[in-house]
Design goal:
Elements (H helix, E strand, L loop, with lengths): L1 H10 L13 H10 L5 H5 L18 E6 L5 E5 L12 H11 L5 E3 L17 E3 H11 L2 H12 L2 H14 L22 H11 L3 H7 L3 E5 L5 E5 L4 H4 L3 E9 L3 E10 L2 E10 L4 H26 L1
Antiparallel strand pairs: 1-2, 1-9, 3-4, 5-6, 7-8, 8-9
Helix pairs in contact: 1-2, 2-8, 4-5, 4-6, 5-6, 6-7
């Protein structure tokens, strides 16, 4: 699927007689997020010689993928193309579908059929404007908010899951299947670090999505005039210089997970880290990977400029 997508996009550049055809913004977006380069880095330098590389050997995470956004260069990966459970990183797709398909000014009530996990901060009978509920879901990883959005946007949750899987197929996420909107334990809800990096890079090119996941604190209003104070569960937004998002996740099935992105020195990196051992290690390990990634890309850029 991914290779076919690249071929189609490449063929769109020229029409009959080799006249150049301008790509649409969406085609450009797809082309950029589909760019995964596993060879160029080592052709220019030995990344194992860069400071911080040996530290990666002691990370507890089961899988990760670290990519430079502008080039698609894979800086580091461990089991990055293998299927893993993704916990609440699932909500990246839930938010993306809601933003693309929903009416963001609609009112959504928390009814009995979406008040399922009851570990969430939304409560039965509360009402929210859709955009505010997306903020609440992404900032504090609210499971029942995800169900409320799925039912409202899809008409029913099964229809929403179909939208999620169609979007995954459209993006070439070949190792992914969605079976719920929030990432709660389900053997049929899985992805890979590589697929989730692709989703993150695509979603972050939606300026509203990027604004939501980059928000550190917000008083989310309810329709009755009250509000809910939300502090983003992604600790890197509060502690890591240049962090711009994206989403935490945890279940016993998936372990501690984090999708993150940061910008420094003209480089934007995307990282998905899956099944870290503890709540804190998903953040410290992600920070170690990002630090290493920025050093690698600085060295890579210096080599390119020196040629």
């Amino acid at each position: 699927m991914t290779m076919m997508l690249a071929v189609v996009l490449a063929s769109c550049r020229f029409g009959r007689g080799d006249e150049k055809i301008e790509l649409t913004p969406e085609q450009i977006r797809l082309e950029k997020v589909s760019r995964i380069d596993t060879t160029s880095l080592r052709a220019m330098l030995n990344p194992d010689s860069i400071e911080g590389r040996t530290k990666l050997d002691s990370l507890t995470a089961d899988a990760w993928m670290l990519v430079d956004d502008s080039t698609g260069i894979v800086i580091s990966e461990k089991c990055g193309f293998e299927r893993r459970f993704m916990a609440s990183i699932t909500k990246m797709m839930t938010a993306l579908i809601a933003l693309e398909k929903g009416n963001l000014s609609d009112s959504i009530d928390i009814t009995e059929d979406v008040f399922i996990n009851r570990d969430s901060r939304v409560r039965l009978g509360q009402g929210y404007v859709m955009l505010d509920l997306i903020y609440e879901m992404m900032m504090i990883s609210d499971n029942d908010a995800a169900y409320a959005l799925a039912k409202h946007v899809g008409g029913d949750t099964l229809q929403f899951y179909d939208l999620m899987n169609r979007k995954a197929q459209y993006l070439g996420m070949d190792s992914t299947h969605f079976a719920n909107p929030n990432g709660m334990p389900n053997d049929n809800n899985f992805s890979s670090a590589a697929d989730l990096v692709k989703l993150a890079r695509y979603a972050m090119r939606d300026t509203l999505f990027a604004s939501i996941v980059g928000t550190t604190e917000k008083a989310v209003p309810l329709t009755d005039g009250r509000h809910m104070d939300c502090r983003n569960s992604n600790a890197l937004l509060h502690t890591y210089e240049g962090c711009i998002g994206i989403k935490t996740g945890y279940t016993r099935q998936a372990g501690y997970c984090l999708a993150s992105s940061a910008t420094r020195n003209g480089h934007t990196l995307y990282l998905v880290l899956l099944n870290s051992r503890k709540h804190a290690t998903r953040f410290t390990e992600s920070a170690a990977l990002l630090d290493y990634g920025f050093r690698v890309m600085d060295a890579y850029t210096q080599r390119i400029n020196a040629q």
